[in-house]
Structures are given as C-alpha cells and as structure tokens.
Specification:
Layout (H helix, E strand, L loop, with lengths): L4 E3 L6 E9 H11 L5 H10 L2 H12 L5 E6 L2 H5 L7 E7 L1 H10 L9 E7 L4 E7 L1 H5 L5 H20 L21 E3 L1
Antiparallel strand pairs: 1-7, 2-6, 3-4, 4-5, 5-6
Length: 188
C-alpha cells in the first residue's frame, strides 16, 4: 500500500436552529453581526507593511461577533426560475486571526475553515440557521492541536448564536464526539 492517498471516516454532527424570526429579518441580523470581509482593505493592510498586528487590528475592527463573511452565495433568485418558492443563502465565515492557528498547524485544515453556514427559509417563513460542528470537522485530522482549533470555532459560533438571540446547543461547548473512529486507511 501507498501513503499517497488517505481516507478517514468521520462522524459530524449537523446543527439546525429555527430562529423564530422572519427569514429576511434574521438574515439581516446575521449579516449585521457577521459583516462582509473587505478584501481590498485586507490587501491594503498587507501592502502597508503593518504585519500581523495590522491584520489583527483589522480583524478586531470588523469581526464584532467573532466572524466575517468571506463569501456569500444566494442561489434563491436562480432557483425561483424553476419554481422554488423559498429563500436560502450560504456563507463562508471566518476569523482570519483565529483561523491562522489551524493553517499554521496544517494548511489542509482550511478545507473546513472558513465555516460553512446556511440560512434557509422554513415552510412557515422563519430563518433556520444550519452548520456542521467545527470540532467534529477538525477531528478528522486526528491531531489534538487541531481539535483545540475546532473547539475554539465551536465557542465562536456559540457567541454568535447568543448575540443573535437564538438557542445555543450544548454541543457547541464540548469537543468532538467521542466515538471510536477507525484509523486512516492508506490507498495505493
């Protein structure tokens, strides 16, 4: 067998929370709490020579609830062309300063950073927030230092949910689930 390809099975808990708020109102609240990342401003910091302290200052100024939206994908208008009636938007959200630790340990961790967050309109018109638990996603790497990164992202999400005044699942306060997952299987 070869060590070129590795397959690791994993268990990931998926969380969905009905906000109880109208979809558009909840989406607006989320986008206020998690503003769009300004790439040009970030590139200005890089070009200014301000170094990592400049990046940290930019993050502190923009990620008020702990995250910024790196990318927003709203397929709703396109989907409505074929008869879909509800809305939904996917965000890639991150805090680059907190995420750097994961990148430093293993750049491959950015498969799961930024976090993928979905707000979907329910049948009764409320906004439902969904995501996979970051600690579970990071557990696939089998490294305790990345487990800490995942647990930190869990805490960031817990803070965001509290800020948005929606229920905070107890699972966000723990580590990855303690299920026995078989060792990685190398493929040739």
């Amino acid at each position: 067998m070869s060590d070129i390809t590795t397959v690791r099975p994993r268990v990931v808990r998926h969380v969905s929370i009905d906000s109880g708020q109208p979809y558009e109102a909840f989406r607006a609240a989320y986008e206020t709490a998690v503003p769009a990342f300004d790439r040009l401003e970030a590139m200005g910091v890089v070009r200014s020579g301000a170094g990592w302290s400049g990046v940290t200052a930019l993050s502190d100024a923009t990620a008020g609830a702990g995250l910024v939206n790196v990318f927003t994908f709203d397929p709703s208008p396109l989907m409505k062309l074929n008869g879909s009636t509800r809305d939904g938007v996917t965000y890639l959200a991150a805090n680059i300063v907190r995420a750097e630790r994961g990148f430093h340990i293993d750049p491959a961790s950015f498969l799961y950073i930024p976090l993928r967050i979905m707000i979907a309109e329910t049948d009764h018109g409320t906004g439902q927030l969904s995501f996979d638990l970051p600690a579970d996603l990071m557990a696939v790497f089998g490294r305790s230092d990345l487990d800490d990164v995942g647990a930190g992202a869990n805490r960031t999400l817990a803070g965001l949910l509290k800020h948005l005044e929606v229920p905070v699942p107890a699972e966000l306060h723990g580590a990855a689930i303690g299920l026995e997952i078989p060792a990685a299987v190398p493929h040739s």
